[in-house]
Amino acid sequence: MGPKDQYPCSESIKSATFGRIFVGFYLRSWGHFMAHHFLVFLMGFVFLCGAKPAAAEDLRKLIVIPGIVGSELSNAAGDVIWGRASSLKGSNFRQLDLLPAAGDPVPLTATDALRSVPLVFGTVNIGLYSGLIDFLVGERSIFDSAAQRDIQGKYTENTDLFVFSYDWRRSNFANAVLLNEFIQAHVPADEGFDIAAHSMGGLLTRAFLSDLRPQDFCTDAAIETQLSESAAQATCAAAYGSVGAGGWRGLNADNRFSEAARLHTFIEIATPHKGSVNVASTLVEGWGRLSQILVGGKRDIQDILLSMVGPYELIPSYDNCCAMGAAGRPGNNAVAVLDETYWAKLVLGFEVEPCPYTRCGAKRALLQIGLQNRAVMDRVFERGLPDTVKANHVMVGRLVDGTRETMYVARGAAGDGAGMTYRTSARGDGTVYEGSAIAEGNQAFVLRSKHPFIVGSDEVHRYVYNILIDPVQNIPQMVNSARLFVGGGDVESLALSADPQIAGAGQVVSLRLDLTADPAQNFDEDALAQTQIVFAVTAYGQTTPVWQETVGLDDDLSLAVGGLAAFTTTLPAPAAGVYLVSATQGTRELAQELLHVLEEDS
Fold first, then answer.
1. Shortest CA distance to 439 belongs to which of 396, 481, 398, 480?
2. Which of 218, 427, 545, 548 is the most exposed place for a label (fewest CB within 10 A)?
3. Per-residue pLDDT tens over the stretch 202-211
4. Burial status of residue 311 (CB atoms within 10 A of its CB: 0-12, 13-18, 19 or more)
5. Using one digit for the tens of pLDDT, what is the confidence trace for 364-412?
6. Contacts for 163-166 with beta carbons within 8 Å, 24 or more apart?
7. Per-residue pLDDT tens over the stretch 426-462
8. How many whole angstroms separate alpha carbon 123 and alpha carbon 499?
9. Burial 365-403 (b: 16+ CB within 10 A, else e)
10. The whole model's pTM is what?
11. Stretch 101-106: mean pLDDT, rounded?
12. CA distance 188 to 141
């Protein structure tokens, strides 16, 4: 039973609910008195109709699915290996290796979504899911400016709201098997359900909704491999694991997953439908300088990352995502991005002699599987969603500088990532290029937010509320491009960075906020010179900053007439922990970033 079927006069209720959005703008534009009377009329209309509030006791069950690196992974003793600040230390990070040089991988189990500590995965930041979950279960409220009241969710976790955590190192297609079994276990067979998925969780869901399957030597016995039997088994375990009582369901499995037709509403938050250059560059670059020291060096990080097929399934595949040449120079040519030779030889250096990776044959086979699966995922996306899905809402981040659109490989490079450059812009959320995040159907919401903070933003929570909890009719296409005016100019894009983002206690960290003005309304030189920005560093989850400083324009890096404004400062990294870096003007927060401070392994 969908929201429109739950109550008598439901269309009128939804029209009235939509009216409160109108009233919110009316309040701001025409005065509180008349708007108040209009709202009273609408509320009275709903009452006369004899309907209960659309927020309902009969909510469909909701499944929240995190993105890549967004699930905690714990060992057999119950210790959280991935999901704490210490996860970035070498002693824990090495336990993520699915193809270790010797012995079997450490058995790890997905135990929850990340709720208390956001983490960094190379050039990909992952946010926290506690904000969304806490809102949905009514443990926190937010102010709805349209309704002019506080709102909060009405779900109960593990009763009608469930978190599907999964081992993000493995294939989305394998995790789709586990999602199907999860639904069987938690949603009665005669009920529909909804899914709210962030980032790669959207791809996992689309795999679950499709009848397309991977075809490789792991899934089809007719396909041969030159690997030894033991190496082939290790490679397939790394790619697909052991999924479900019936094992891996390959290409010839029966149509769609059994529970897929029951999905009613599918909400996608910053999903890289066609992949992400940032994820691809992480495979090449590893992490920052300090993390390389902690883990043992770039090659050690790569060795672990290349044992995972999940990141390969996020390799970008949209038009002009990858090219030969150099960024900003003529003569560039797009490449066949899913060509295994391009990645193996030119990007990752599998053909460097001697091969720089342990278990090189198995890891190259895993690359091949990952690229093939990426191609299957593209076909899944191109087919679109099945008709059984009643509603699809796609939320996209935009206006964040530094989003990597295109990756270039220098001509004649010897491989191993040599000569890699990127074209960047603000057409994305800093991790996912906008062209990869959009999808046909209901591209319902666009907001100015970095990838890790989208899922925790109040704007997204309000939107989810109006889709699932208090449905409104004809939800408008909403663009949160609330213009930012700084220094007399209209800020078109912004970027906040902490360098290094993974630091050691006491290490000097440089903070920089870059603002780019819309050429139609550029900065005013005098006004910009008077602008003050407050940088603050706060332990994640706390409210009182551990460090704060007010800074003015950096004249050496700024050019007001060119629409470029930079604000910079430095600080010694605080004690070990995870911190939120913010840049604020007055009472308005402009941007956020994460800072991880680690202690070296003893």
1. 396
2. 548
3. 999 999 999 8
4. buried
5. 999 999 999 999 999 999 999 999 999 999 998 888 888 999 999 887 6
6. 163/63, 163/64, 163/65, 163/66, 163/112, 163/113, 163/129, 163/133, 164/63, 164/64, 164/65, 164/201, 165/66, 165/71, 165/72, 165/110, 165/111, 165/112, 165/113, 166/65, 166/71, 166/110, 166/204
7. 889 989 999 999 887 666 667 878 888 888 888 899 8
8. 12
9. bbbbbbbbbbbbbbebbeeebeeebebbbbbbbbbbbbb
10. 0.84
11. 93
12. 29
> Which segments of 307-413 does DSSP mark as H helices, in order?
340-341, 360-383
Question: CA-CA distance, 125 to 118, in Å (whole number)?
Answer: 8
Rg of the chain in Å (alpha carbons)? 25
* Structural tokens at position 338: 């899913």
* Chain mean pLDDT for the chain: 83
Query: Looking at residue 352, what is its pLDDT?
Result: 84
- State the first-to-last Cα distance of the chain, in angstroms, to the nearest integer: 57
CA gap 342, 419 in Å, rounded: 14
Q: Helix and strand tally (H, E) in the chain?
A: 16, 27
Amino acid (1-letter code) at residue 436: S
Structure tokens belonging to residue 292: 């390389």
Beta-carbon-side half-sphere exposure of residue 278 (alpha carbons within 13 Å): 25
DSSP state of 221: T
Would you list the DSSP string of 163-186?
A: E----TTS-HHHHHHHHHHHHHHH
Instruction: Go through the chain and tell me how many residues it has.
Output: 602
The bridge status of strand 403-409 relative to strand 161-163 is unpaired
Q: Which amino acid is at 545?
A: P
DSSP string, 53-84: PTT-S-PPEEEEE--TT-EEEE-TTS-EEESS
User: Among the ranges 3-17, 21-35, 529-543, which has the highest mean pLDDT value?
Assistant: 529-543
Contact 594, 125 (CB under 8 A): yes
The amino acid at residue 557 is L
% residues pLDDT > 70 (the chain) = 81
Q: Which residue reads 């059994």 in tokens?
A: 258
